């Protein structure tokens, strides 16, 4: 079982700006390319920050105050105030940037986004040079996987490969990412393990094991050594 990597999902052609680019040129760049944020890079293309629409709007909010009108935005820290007064990309950007490398998995990237409260991650190489960007929308692309691909991964990689079960004794049905398993397994304790592992497959929306049972549930007591009181009784 393999989670998709950021290198497979990221956008490789990324619009970026240098730190000394004027404020209005940053706004023009966002508008021209239809993006909501751009990485800020130095002369060697190493990422030093990110400028988003939220960073730029600080200036709009701070300048909303006019004599006799509402005061400037209250509660701004010294750093936020400096950003609101900035005139170049390096003065208004958010830094340090939240970065990942192409080898990160979708799961790792999603957790980092959640922990950092960001909508996108800058992708860099081993020297911190810009190689791509990945957004929440990119991560959601895993749910566009074909049902047949999900079924193959569950049948071959999880059931047959990792758990060593006989795929012929099990049925795997996948519809719009919803997985339903049926058939029988040697031990009932295997069922929650199967459910958890299937739920981690990229593109899976839900997993149902309602039709999955233990072999002795079907064969009845006294057969194959798994019945009540037999040598293979589950404890």
TrEMBL record:
The biased composition feature labelled Basic and acidic residues covers 78-90
Keyword Ligase carried by entry: no
Among CDD domains, the record links this protein to: CBS_pair_BON_assoc
Sorted alphabetically, which SMART domains does this protein's record hold?
CBS (SM00116)
Q: Where is the CBS domain?
A: 10-66, 93-150
Q: Where is this region: Disordered?
A: 68-90, 212-235
Q: Which Pfam families match?
A: BON, CBS
What name is this protein filed under? Transport protein
């Amino acid at each position: 079982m393999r989670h998709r990597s950021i290198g497979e999902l990221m956008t490789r052609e990324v619009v970026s700006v240098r730190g000394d680019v004027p404020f209005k040129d940053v706004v023009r760049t966002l508008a021209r390319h239809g993006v909501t944020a751009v990485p800020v890079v130095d002369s060697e293309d190493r990422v030093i920050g990110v400028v988003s629409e939220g960073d730029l709007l600080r200036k709009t909010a701070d300048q909303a105050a006019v004599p006799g009108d509402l005061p400037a935005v209250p509660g701004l820290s010294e750093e936020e105030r400096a950003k609101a007064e900035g005139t170049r990309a390096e003065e208004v950007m958010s830094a340090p940037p939240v970065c990942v490398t192409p080898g990160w998995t979708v799961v790792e990237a999603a957790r980092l986004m959640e922990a950092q409260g960001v909508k996108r991650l800058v992708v860099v190489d081993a020297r911190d040079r810009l190689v791509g960007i990945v957004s929440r929308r990119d991560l959601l692309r895993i749910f566009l996987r074909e049902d047949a691909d999900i079924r193959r991964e569950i049948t071959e990689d999880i059931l047959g490969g990792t758990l060593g079960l006989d795929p012929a004794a099990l049925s795997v049905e996948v519809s719009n990412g919803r997985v339903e398993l049926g058939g029988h397994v040697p031990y009932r304790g295997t069922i929650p393990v199967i459910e958890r592992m299937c739920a981690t497959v990229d593109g899976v929306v839900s997993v149902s094991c309602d039709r999955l049972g233990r072999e002795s549930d079907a064969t009845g007591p006294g057969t194959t050594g798994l019945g009540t009181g037999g040598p293979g009784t589950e404890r």
